[in-house]
Amino acid sequence: MKRILIKGGTLYTMIGKDGIFKGDVLIEDGKIIETKESIHAEDAEVIDASGLCVMPGLIDAHSHIGLFDFNSDEAVDDANEMTDPVSAAVDARYGINPKARELRVAYEHGITSMLFTPGSGDVFCGQAFVAKTFGDNIFDMTVKAPAAVKIALGGNPKNTFGDLKRLPMTRMGVAHVLWDTFGKAKEYLEKKEKGEALDYDANMEALIPALKREIPCKIHCTQYDMLTAIEAATAYNVRFSLEHAWGAADYLDEIVESGCDICYGPIATYRAPGERRKVDIEAVKMLDDRGVNVAIITDSPILSEESLYHHIGEAVREGVSHERAVRMVTINPAVQLGLEERIGCLGAGRDADIILVKGRLGLDTNAAVMMTMVDGEIVYRA
Amino acid sequence: MYLLKNGLVHVGDGTVIPDCDILTEGRVITKVGKGLDEADAEIIDVSGCDVFPGFIDPVSSIGAMGLPARYPDNGEYSEPVTPEMNVKYSIDPDEVNAQEFYKSGITAIGLAPTNGNLMGGQIAVCKTAPQKMRNRIVKECAGLKCSVTSAVKKRYGSANRLPMTKMGIFHLFEETLREARSGKEDMPKKRRQVILDVFDRQSMQVFCAASTKNEIDGLLHLMKDEAVHINLVDSFCFADSLKEIKEQKAGVILGNINCMSQIAKNRMELTKLVELVENGNPVAFTNSNGGSSEGREVFLWSAIEAWRAGVPAEEVVKMMTLYPAQMLGISGRLGTLEPGKDADISVFTGHPVVTYAARVKHSMINGEVIF
């Protein structure tokens, strides 16, 4: 039994209204045991955190690291099985390079968990999973698999299959595939539940956890395509988040009414007619104010993993409080993924994924991670 | 006529003046100092604000890409050596306007050819405000954009044309200079003239994309005895060639650092920027990466990365203002807040290099308040 006591830091527990206070964290065998103002544990190894912020490890809820592998001269794309617009069954764990150097940069910047997702070259891109960023074997690092069904609307699937002169060549074609596939999956599930004979279909099987609301659908969409996503996802009563969500400020009411979550980002793309027309980080503030669960994402390695700091910084620049912005990369994505009992806060029983930070992340531009702990193990010290 | 009152004025050359006023008249700054008074001027209260010269991105693709288009307007890929092309003719004002660059404090951009050609053409400097175009162009021939990156060999090698390799890229570079100087008849006249103007008469600086160590080392080796000033563009592996870059006092224009895993992929050592600063190398930032641009936000992010790496904040400000102006040969007009300079001023609610909470409160371009 290994006990660690982190003493005297400013705790960002991410729990409740008064979640920020000076205090201690007790860890035992890789889990958080207790978080309070003062803890005495004589047998514990003490880590002095005075002058530092003690935060849950950060979560990037939408990454393609190791799937888009930029570690050799020629970039490798193992994120897109673009042989059929419905490729829901493919599992991202098998596409990832666990030695990708970005993973190291991630945990050195305090990002301890990521959702790794295929996509977005198909309409149904495959199964996303959540894993820790430190470890040797991606299957051992995995926290939850599958964690979400990845779906994509818009230009990516349309261009993939348009080049092949196959459905979908248009945005209406993409919508058709979306409706059609959900419809088939629902029928498949109904037959299965009634015990009727049916041919095994791996893609339909992959959609069952989404139809049963056990895992969310993560739907890549921007601008007007958000309405398409909301319409179809609502009709089939799936849990879902809008991924990227550029232009969300124009669809606030629809988003709020649908009860969906938002994974906003990356920002810092150039503006151009169509999908890039409006890139409105200020929407994050409006959505948060109206009670929508918003996570901020980097889409790494498209924007790099360390840019998560800059991403929450831009939210702060647009008026989000520092504390709310930090929630968007900790507890908010954890709740979206149904993992709030494991990651995203400093509550008792959670994985001891903890970072010690000098300065206020997302506000002070030079805030820096001094120590990263994953499952109670110190994996990085500045 | 505007009078900006009581700002913390960052001149752009490293000096900072508290409680300082700036008077503008028409297109230019007329006075900078404390306690200025001018009855006719409209007063803009900038107390509590940080005031900077408008930032400059020296090598932007955005504004000349011609989106949405089948072929980008800043890549004339009919042949790899096209120094006679001038991006001025490819400007799309709407594309510039759509970026709202001034919301990140950027008031001028050097519109540049892509990295796909060895010599892509000439950079044109344009202001970012939606104003009349003739008032926006600062300089038409502000630099020669070159590239020795893999982008060139990918473009031409795939069509079985020279250059197919890095060897081919440098061979073509060397031969192009030799042919221009030898006076051989088969080189188009305009092309020869631009090359000789740049390399023999230093009419403008060279902005050459070079990212990996072998690209940077190869370029600096080839340019060792050339008089023209070289600026390395992208230069993600600058820290691996520090000695050579310092010796030649080459400029470094860091590409978009937080994009496409540059830090992880290249094991970038940004702390080495401090050595370049101490050695007097000019450094600047650009939104582009591999010759294509991302959004305005990344300019400030790169500046923040430099500060995080240990570069003093006011040195970082020089990298956003004075140095890019010098590289482009426009420091007579842009880059510092001094009398006679263009009234291109970015007023932030804090120091954007130091805090994310800093927002642009006002932006002035050509003496016009646009935000």
| Ends apart, CA distance between termini of chain A | 27 Å
Relative helix content of chain B: 25-40%
Q: Determine the fraction of residues in helical runs of chain A and give it as a percent range.
A: 25-40%
Structural class of chain A: alpha/beta
Provide the low-confidence segments of chain B as ranges.
Answer: none
Strand content of chain B: 25-35%
- Quick one: CATH class of the largest domain in chain B? Alpha Beta
Shape of chain A: globular
Number of strands of chain A: 18
Which series of helices and strands of chain B comes N to C?
A: EEEEEEHEEHEHHHEHEHEHHEEEHHHEEE
Average of per-residue pLDDT values of chain B: 96
| SSE string of chain A, helices as H and strands as E | EEEEEEEEHEEHEHHHEHEHEHEHHHEEE
Mean pLDDT of chain A: 96
Structural notes for this entry:
The complex is a heterodimer of chains A (382) and B (371). By secondary structure, chain A is α/β, with parallel strands linked by helices. Chain A has helices spanning 101-108, 138-141, 155-162, 171-194, 202-211, 225-235, 252-258, 282-289, 307-317, 322-327, 331-336, and strands at 3-12, 20-28, 31-36, 45-48, 53-56, 58-63, 68-69, 76-77, 111-116, 124-132, 142-152, 217-221, 240-244, 261-264, 294-296, 354-358, 368-374, 377-381. In chain A, helix 6 (225-235) links the parallel strand 12 and strand 13. Chain A is globular, with a radius of gyration of 21 Å. The relative contact order of chain A is 0.16. The mean pLDDT of chain A is 96. The two termini of chain B are 16 Å apart. Chain B is 27% helix and 26% strand. In chain B, helix 4 (166-182) crosses helix 5 and helix 10 (297-308) packs antiparallel against helix 11 (313-320). In chain B, the strands form three sheets. In chain B, strands 1, 2, 3, 4, 5, 16, 17 and 18 form an eight-stranded mixed beta sheet that branches. Classes of the chains: A alpha/beta (382), B alpha/beta (371). At the A-B interface, helix 1 and helix 9 of A face helix 1, helix 8 and helix 10 of B.
